[in-house]
Structures are given as C-alpha cells and as structure tokens.
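Page header: ASSEMBLY MODEL / two components / 218 residues total.
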Amino acid sequence: EDQVTQSPEALRLQEGESSSLNCSYTVSGLRGLFWYRQDPGKGPEFLFTLYSAGEEKEKERLKATLTKKESFLHITAPKPEDSATYLCAVLSNYQLIWGAGTKLIIKP
Amino acid sequence: NAGVTQTPKFQVLKTGQSMTLQCAQDMNHNSMYWYRQDPGMGLRLIYYSASEGTTDKGEVPNGYNVSRLNKREFSLRLESAAPSQTSVYFCASSEPRELFFGEGSRLTVL
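Prediction written out in full:
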C-alpha cells in the first residue's frame, strides 16, 4: 500500500537553531515528491518538487533533498516567520498521496 | 490576480441539511480538485476534474457531488450533511506538477 509518513509531528526550535523534517514514503513508481508550506487558516503553498534520488532544491533558509526512501527538508538558522506546517506529498504512478504534516514552531 | 477563491469561508450545518461550496480560479488551469483536511491526516482527494465537462471520483467521494460549471468554476455539494463531514475543505487548481490552493472552507456539521 502506498504510504507517506512525516516526522516529527511537531518541532519547536529556537530562532537560529537548524534542524530537519523527514518525509518517508513507500510507493509504487515515484514520479515526484512535493513540499508545501501551510500557514494557519490558509491553503498549502508550493515550495519544491524533487524527481530523482540525489536531487536537491533550495529556497532561502530551506533545502529539500531526496533519497530512494525519504526526503528531508533542512531549515538553516530559522526565523519566527518560518513557523508553519510543512506538508510532503508523493506522486506515485496514478495518485498524489499526502503526509499529515510537521508543525514547525520557531521561538524568538 | 486572485488565484483560487472559495466561498464560504465558514459554515455550520445541521445533520441532513444540504449546501454547496463554491470555487473559482482565474489562472486558466484545466485541472481542478476538491480536498478535505482533517487533524492528524493528510489531505484526501474527494473529486477532481481534469478538464471542463469531466469529473472523477477521488479517494473519499461518498456523500459528495461536484459540478464543473465551466473552466473557471468547480463546486462541491453535500446533499445530506453528516457529522463525519465536519472538516476543512480546499479547492485547488493545477499546472503540471504544481497545485494552487484556495484558503479553505471550514465546515461544521452538528
């Protein structure tokens, strides 16, 4: 069964404290892995797409990486405005499967 | 450029009542989607429309109907609301490989 699992469910960091969020997946035929950011009361907003193992994408303090079994969203020196829920989604052969998300809180 | 617009943002229904969630996009996208988001779960696809005039069931279609009115508009109807349909509903439209979401409609069924 295709499955996407995100960990941890919630992560509290001090401003400037770097860390990583994990998205592990088991799917038949990976066609793409997506990261989205969701602010409270808003819809998800697209961040990155990764297509193959070894690929990396960067945007400001965020860097996404992909292996054959998981993806990491690394956040370097985060700021309070990086606080949000980060969602991972995997496109298998015919469907898009979403993880439950990691809620990231950055304390000043 | 408004993107994806959903109405209403909040709604409270009694069990058995009906209602329609409206969605419109101004990005000229062919594909549109309705998702529901529940605590502790990933987004789940209710229905999608690959193009004007076509609709298909997603993962959790029971209790819902949809209408793709034209290229811009895709509505979701609950014919007889149940407490299990209490959720946040998101409409989305897509370019290849990127979804654009509305701000969501929070529905409570009592």
